[in-house]
Structures are given as C-alpha cells and as structure tokens.
C-alpha cells in the first residue's frame, strides 16, 4: 500500500562556484536547476551539473 502525504519535494540546486565568485559582479548570473527529491531518506543534495556561466561541469548544491 502506498504512503500518504508529500514524500517528494521540489528543490532548487545552485552552482557553488558562481555563488563564490558573485562578489566580483563580473559574472552575468548564477546557474540554477529545479529537481525533486525524496524527503524521507535524503539529506542535502549535491549534484554535478553543467553551468552555462562557468562553461564547465560544477557541483550544484541544494538551497532553500
């Protein structure tokens, strides 16, 4: 039998290297992805995604 409630939640992943360099104000923006994760068995999520502003694959971490 299936569990009730919202097990899956929508989260936002943000590029970690763009947020560190955003103090310079030289970058045009910050790369963000939207995905879903299982709330019950997953802690903070970090995935390796392509950042169009850095032009390479970087670690994207979960934000609020």
TrEMBL record:
InterPro entries per the UniProt record, alphabetical: Ribosomal_bL33, Ribosomal_bL33_CS, Ribosomal_bL33_sf, Ribosomal_zn-bd
Subcellular location: Plastid, Chloroplast
Gene Ontology biological process terms in this record: translation
This protein's record includes keyword Protein biosynthesis: no
Cellular component terms (Gene Ontology): chloroplast; ribonucleoprotein complex; ribosome
Keywords: Chloroplast, Plastid, Ribonucleoprotein, Ribosomal protein
Cross-referenced Gene3D superfamilies: Ribosomal protein L33 (2.20.28.120)
The keyword Ribosomal protein appears for this protein: yes
Molecular functions per Gene Ontology: structural constituent of ribosome
Primary location class: plastid
Pfam families on file: Ribosomal_L33
Similarity section: Belongs to the bacterial ribosomal protein bL33 family.
Name of the protein in its database record: Large ribosomal subunit protein bL33c
Gene: rpl33
